[in-house]
What we know:
About 75% of the residues lie in helices and about 0% in strands. The chain is an all-alpha fold.
Amino acid sequence: MCNSMNSRDKNNLKFLLNASPEILFEWYLQSSADDRAYAEELLTQASVALTMQHLESLDNIDHTDIASNYLKKFQR
């Protein structure tokens, strides 16, 4: 997902995203503050990467077509 993540990071992110609430709760009880900070950083990196992908996809939209179609409603 994120280019700066190594395979260990990606596997840990996969765990965080796919674990059940019960498993996450058990992990949380057994984790250290450093573990939780690392998990938060992984989730933040993934969130930023997804946001950037979304913004890049918006750049591919032809905004003039959207505006033209909208304005047709008011033209007679």
